[in-house]
Every structure is written in C-alpha cells, then in structure tokens.
Amino acid sequence: MERLLVLVRHGQSEWNLKNLFTGWKDPGLTEQGVTEAHKAGQQLRDLKLTFDIAFTSVLSRAQRTLDIMLEELGQTGLETLKDQALNERDYGDLTGMNKDQAREEFGEEQVHIWRRSYDVPPPGGESLKMTAERVLPYYKSEILPRVLEGKRTLVSAHGNSLRSLIMELENLSPEEILKRELGTGTPIVYRIDENGGVLSVQDLAD
Ligand SMILES: O=C(O)[C@@H](CO)OP(=O)(O)O
C-alpha cells in the first residue's frame, strides 16, 4: 500500500516580501507567491501524484497555496481539513516588526535566537518547541492515521509549523532542524512505512 505525505510551505506572502515577522497575521500571497504555488502544483502533477485528502492552517496564505496547487492537479474541491494547529509559530510582540529593524534594536544575535533557537520563545510568542507541542498532537491524531490507512495526503502550511513536523519525521536534533530552511512553495515528498517512519524523502527544491 502506498503511504504518501507531501508537505508544502505556502508561496511568498506580502509580509515575507516586506521582511516582516508574520506569525499568526494573515497577509495574502504576492504575485511571486501565486507563481510559486502554481509551480508547486505543476511539480506534483509532473510526478503524477494525486491526493485523497488535504490539510491546511486557518491562514489564507496556506489555504490559497493549497487551492492553486489543487487547481493545477485538477483536484479542486478535494476534502480539506483546516486547523489552527498547523498555523505559523506565533511571533508574539515581534509580529509586524521589520526583521532588519529588530536586528538594529535588539542585536543580531538576540534576533537569531528568537528566530532559530529551539526553545527560546520570542517575547509573548511561541518557540519552535511550543509550536511542535501543538503541531505534533494534531499530526498524530488527524494526519498520520489517514496516511497509514493509505490516503494520499497533502499538507499546506508554514515555515515553522512544518519544521516542527519535519524534525519529528526525519528524527532531527534541535541543532539540525535549526539549520533547515524551507523554501516558499517547495513540496517535500515523503513515503511512509506502516509504523509512521519515513521510507524516503524527496525535496523538490531546484
Ligand atoms: O515571519 C514568520 O512568521 C516566519 C516565516 O516567514 O519567519 P522566520 O523565518 O523568521 O521564522
């Protein structure tokens, strides 16, 4: 039985372009983001992949990316579960702040710690560890059971919600996941074994 799980980070958003901390804010995709979403869908189509179910967050950049990919796949209207458990990590007080300005105000090192440490949350926000503590229970209760029963599954979500999931899937240490940057609109294709372990991973970044 095929057990397929594809993860995609949303295409470039208006706030990615403006270099702002985004978190739970809900900017739309840029034109480039729309193009990236079409390309992601085309890449999946070229691999002849189709899906039985999709998951996304409650944020429009991930939902729109999913809709565009489904259009490319000829699968609009696919059963889709939307849940805030898959939202981007909450950036707390940094939300809406320019990342370069934050570096000037708080220093390069502090901003790097807030962005890429495993368990230091930004003020009022979530660390990657806290993000994992909501993403992984949702993955285990809603997503993985479907994958294990053979439903080909597409997940459209966010840089940090997906990093917390990839850390678990690929068994990465906090140090390893911190170095892992996910490109916007880049599908990662996993084949999963009967116990939920990863048989193979294919990153479609070019
Ligand atoms: O701003 C954000 O919400 C995220 C993802 O774009 O940024 P970072 O790469 O700093 O975690």
From TrEMBL:
<feature type="binding site">
    <location>
        <begin position="159"/>
        <end position="160"/>
    </location>
    <ligand>
        <name>substrate</name>
    </ligand>
</feature>
<dbReference type="InterPro" id="IPR029033">
    <property type="entry name" value="His_PPase_superfam"/>
</dbReference>
<protein>
    <recommendedName>
        <fullName>2,3-bisphosphoglycerate-dependent phosphoglycerate mutase</fullName>
        <ecNumber>5.4.2.11</ecNumber>
    </recommendedName>
</protein>
<dbReference type="Pfam" id="PF00300">
    <property type="entry name" value="His_Phos_1"/>
</dbReference>
<feature type="binding site">
    <location>
        <begin position="22"/>
        <end position="23"/>
    </location>
    <ligand>
        <name>substrate</name>
    </ligand>
</feature>
<dbReference type="GO" id="GO:0006096">
    <property type="term" value="P:glycolytic process"/>
</dbReference>
<feature type="binding site">
    <location>
        <position position="61"/>
    </location>
    <ligand>
        <name>substrate</name>
    </ligand>
</feature>
<comment type="similarity">
    <text>Belongs to the phosphoglycerate mutase family. BPG-dependent PGAM subfamily.</text>
</comment>
<feature type="binding site">
    <location>
        <position position="99"/>
    </location>
    <ligand>
        <name>substrate</name>
    </ligand>
</feature>
<feature type="site" description="Transition state stabilizer">
    <location>
        <position position="158"/>
    </location>
</feature>
<comment type="pathway">
    <text>Carbohydrate degradation; glycolysis; pyruvate from D-glyceraldehyde 3-phosphate: step 3/5.</text>
</comment>
<keyword id="KW-0312">Gluconeogenesis</keyword>
<feature type="active site" description="Tele-phosphohistidine intermediate">
    <location>
        <position position="10"/>
    </location>
</feature>
<feature type="binding site">
    <location>
        <begin position="9"/>
        <end position="16"/>
    </location>
    <ligand>
        <name>substrate</name>
    </ligand>
</feature>
<dbReference type="InterPro" id="IPR001345">
    <property type="entry name" value="PG/BPGM_mutase_AS"/>
</dbReference>
<comment type="function">
    <text>Catalyzes the interconversion of 2-phosphoglycerate and 3-phosphoglycerate.</text>
</comment>
<feature type="binding site">
    <location>
        <begin position="88"/>
        <end position="91"/>
    </location>
    <ligand>
        <name>substrate</name>
    </ligand>
</feature>
<dbReference type="GO" id="GO:0004619">
    <property type="term" value="F:phosphoglycerate mutase activity"/>
</dbReference>
<feature type="active site" description="Proton donor/acceptor">
    <location>
        <position position="88"/>
    </location>
</feature>
<keyword id="KW-0324">Glycolysis</keyword>
<comment type="subunit">
    <text>Homodimer.</text>
</comment>
<dbReference type="GO" id="GO:0006094">
    <property type="term" value="P:gluconeogenesis"/>
</dbReference>
<dbReference type="InterPro" id="IPR013078">
    <property type="entry name" value="His_Pase_superF_clade-1"/>
</dbReference>
<feature type="binding site">
    <location>
        <begin position="115"/>
        <end position="116"/>
    </location>
    <ligand>
        <name>substrate</name>
    </ligand>
</feature>
<dbReference type="InterPro" id="IPR005952">
    <property type="entry name" value="Phosphogly_mut1"/>
</dbReference>
<keyword id="KW-0413">Isomerase</keyword>
